[in-house]
Amino acid sequence: MKIKFGPVEENVITRDEFSLEKAKQVLKDEVIAVIGYGIQGPGQALNLRDNNLSVIVGQRKNSPSWDKALKDGWVEGENLFEVEEAANRGTIIMNLLSDAGQITVWPVLKKYLTPGKSLYFSHGFGLFFHEKTGIYPPKDIDVFLVAPKGSGTSVRRLFLKGKGINSSYAIYKDYSGRAQEKTFAIGMAIGSGYLFETNFKNEVLSDLAGERGSLMGAIQGIFAAQYQVLRDNGHSPSEAFNETVEEFTESLMPLIGENGMQWMYSNCSTTAQRGALDWWKKFRDATMPVFKELYNEVASGNEAQRTIDANSQENYREKLKEELKELSQSELWKVGATVRKLRPIEDEKSHEKAQGACCMPK
To answer: Is 123 among the residues known to form the active site?
Structure first.
């Protein structure tokens, strides 16, 4: 259906239009091979399995991800195979390896993309930056993506709650004439709440900009800056963390997600309201140049090349551990670990609890 988002109408597919039963009918003769059991693989594979579809997993044997698959109930030789065997058996190949993993495995995987099969992605990086990755799909297969707007953990968690995660979809090649219905079917079967249309280019650029920006990079930078300013001005670690992170994640963000920022502004104390209205445009104007620089680096391919170069180094994982250690060993996140331990075990995060927040109605 057409939905108006602000001034623009977009194509959106809901569960009412494309039901799970319809998805099962479309996929009833398919063998869905999930290649990779790292970030997105477990959530999507388990959701498909729980929806009683024919799903197998392909993963390098005796790896941590192979062991995780075994713990999740996949059975070697029955629905858990090495990558080549799974790709050979599958009719829809879900390439859910990491971007670096896709580059490494592509020479093997492409041999099994025989005429009539389908190739599925949840991120278009490898295909869009094909000149850098060497990923060129055959001409006689369908190629499409469904990209959940959240982690694989969220895909699974929301599915188990009977909810759904929003996902984008794009069709790169419709060789069979059925690529669209297969895209919608997979999207609903993995647990999407609704699907919105994009293309491979826009999915990649928005994803890279988003995760480096407000989703992860920028928010960590803002957390670190505010926490440090509070600490430098004599505030205790607990107070600085609670005012910077805890109230944001545990109280305000759930309410913003449910009702929007305009609701939050309308339903906070007049003191918080005045301050937020006075300061938000200053933060917008201060960060706009950084976001423009970020997007230009993503769109130019420079960010993709840095990622490929870094992830291709033999000692990449050792370097990554050191970089992540800088976060985990920082005072900010050490305090966070302590605060999380102090939370009540049965924390429903109800609206009633949120009313106690400092910037909620007084």
So the answer is: yes
